Amino acid sequence: MNRSSLIKALVFDLDGTLLNSQKIISERNQEALMRSYQSGVKLFIATARPPRSVNKMVPKELLDCASGIYYNGAYVKEIHGKTMSYTISSADSGKLIDFMCSHNEKDAISIESEDRLYALSDETFAKNAKHMVLPPTIVTPSKLKELPANKVLLFHCPSSVKSFVMQYTDQLTIVETDSKELMQIMAKDISKSRAVSALCKKMNISMDSVMSFGDDWNDLDLFKTCGYSVAMGNAEPELKPFASMTTATNDEDGVAQILEQLMITHRY
C-alpha cells in the first residue's frame, strides 16, 4: 500500500468482516471507525443484509455516520436519508418462483422487497433460520410474483436449481455466498461496487481513494474497483489473491488493526 495516499472513504462488509462470530461490532472496531469518521473519512456499510437487520446489529452512533448499501447494492440509503431502490423485473422473478414451485422447492425461496422478507412456506424459516433475522411474511405464489424484488434468495439449492438459475446470468446478477449454501439474485449489474461508485461520484471522491474490507464473494467487485482492498484473515481462500492486503480475522479486530495503522501513517 502506498502510505502517502490519503484514504477518503472506507467500505465495510458486515458478516465475517466488521461483525465478529457473535455478530457484534467490537469496541475496538467501533472506536477505529469513529476516529476515521471524525478525521473526515466517509464511511459506507455494504452488506447483503436488509436495512432492518443492519439497524439491529450496528450501534446508532455508527449508523448515523455511514451511508448504507443493502442487498449487495440493490437498496442504498445515503447518510442524509435519500434512498435508491433497484428491483428484478416481475417476469424474471416470476420464472424463478414458478420453477421452484414446480420442482417442489418452494421452501427454498424467499424475496426481499423494500426491507421486508416474504416466502411461500413456514418451513422456509424453519430450515434456513440462520440466514434470517425474523420469520418471513408468508404469501401465495401469485402474490410473491407481484412484489418488487430487490433480491431473491435461494437456500441449499441442488444442482438442478443452480443449472436453471445460471441460464439467467445475462439478465440477472447471481452470487453464491455462505460456503455456497445461499444464492443471492439481484437485477442485472447490481453490485456493492456500483453502489459505492454512485455514492462516491456524488461526494466527488475517486474510487482510487476508497479502501474496502470483505471476506466473501459478494465483496469481489469491490476488491477489483477500489484503490485499496483488504481481505479478512477468515476470508474465502480463493478471494484473498484479489485483495491488496490481508488482515487478521473478524474475531481479532482485523478491521481496527488496519485502521489504526492508517491513523498512525496519516496522523488522523
Question: What does this entry look like structurally?
Answer:
This protein has 268 residues and is of the alpha/beta class. The protein folds into 2 domains: 154 residues, Rossmann fold (3-Layer(aba) Sandwich); 98 residues, Hypothetical Protein, Haloacid Dehalogenase-like Hydrolase, Chain: A, domain 2, CATH 3.30.1240.10. Helix content is 34%, strand content 22%. It has 11 helices and 14 strands. The strands form 2 sheets. Strands 5-4-3-2-1-12-13-14 form an 8-stranded mixed beta sheet, with helices on both faces. Strands 8-7-6-9-11-10 form a 6-stranded mixed beta sheet, sandwiched between helices. Strand 10 and strand 11 form a beta hairpin. Helix 2 runs parallel beside helix 11. The longest helix is centred in the middle third of the chain and has 13 residues. The chain is globular, with a radius of gyration of 18 Å. The two termini are 17 Å apart. It holds the Pfam family Hydrolase_3. One of its GO terms (cellular component) is cytosol. InterPro entries: Cof (IPR000150), HAD-like_sf (IPR036412), HAD-SF_hydro_IIB (IPR006379), HAD_sf (IPR023214).
Assigned CATH superfamily of the largest domain: HAD superfamily/HAD-like
Which fold name is given in CATH as the topology of the largest domain? Rossmann fold
- Overall number of strands: 14
- Helix and strand run: EHHEHHEEEHEEHEHEHEEHEHEEH
CATH architecture of the largest domain: 3-Layer(aba) Sandwich
Based on CA atoms alone, the radius of gyration comes out at 18 Å
InterPro entries: Cof (IPR000150), HAD-like_sf (IPR036412), HAD-SF_hydro_IIB (IPR006379), HAD_sf (IPR023214)
GO cellular component, one term: cytosol
Protein name: Cof subfamily of IIB subfamily of haloacid dehalogenase superfamily/HAD-superfamily hydrolase, subfamily IIB
Keywords: Hydrolase
